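Supplementary Note 3. Input sequence used for the single-chain structure prediction.
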Amino acid sequence: MGIKFGPSGISQSFYDEGHKSSAEMPEWLHKMGLEAYEYSFSRGVRISEKLALQLKENAEKFNITITIHAPYYINLAAAEEEKIKNSKRYIIESLTAGNLMGAKRLTFHPGSASLDRREALDKAKRVLKEVIKEADDLGLGHITLCPETMGKKNQLGTLEEVLELCQLDERLLPTVDFAHLHARDNGRFKSIEDYEEVLNTIEKYLGKDRAKIIHVHFSRIEFTEQGEKRHWTLLDKEYGPEFEPLAQLFYERNMEPIVICESRERMAEDALELKRIYQEVAKRVSKT
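The predicted structure, written as discrete structure tokens, is reproduced below.
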């Protein structure tokens, strides 16, 4: 597979250049030198069958791996049965659309931890089991489900909580959002050892083979005592975390994640910068 880089959503420059349809993204990204594209259903699953099929065709033509992000308001640990029902529906609708698009992975938010954290996680596990069964029954089980680490402390989504969800089925992979982990732990990543601790924990829970191909979100982030406040760009150097130490570990461990950049407005440009950093690190480390 090899490590792949791409944006979450569409950079402002795409529109500034006169492009209008996301169907044009695969060619645009390919020409930039990127290999992945995360299509976000942030506010609901709204894509026509025609556009989904165009996107799939163009992604295959230009060798772009499509991943998708389910609506933000999923909560697998909700107290209300109606919210649980809707959350399951959002995931299935995302998978259905993703199937038309040729998507390989689906990232989703696990939910809130307004209940006792253990109780919330146990409920999310029960509901996710039901989602996996429904997806399999509908022939959608080939799309990898990727619960995401979250950036606010009141959300379900510590690294360990996400990894416990992934233990439900060997097909599941974590979306490890390093910006979110950095924010919820008040600036967690200060050294290569801090990143190493995360990767070691993933290996401990899931084994080396699955740890090698995790889904990754990366950007700089602003945070408060409560965690995540706002994503920024790689140009906003007053915010962390830094990618270089993580890139070194990806190379040294021969890892092949899909790395999705969530920078504000210049996510494709920053994805390319992440790729450049990785290549520079690989060149340097290979000489030592």
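The chain has a mean pLDDT of 96. The radius of gyration is 18 Å.
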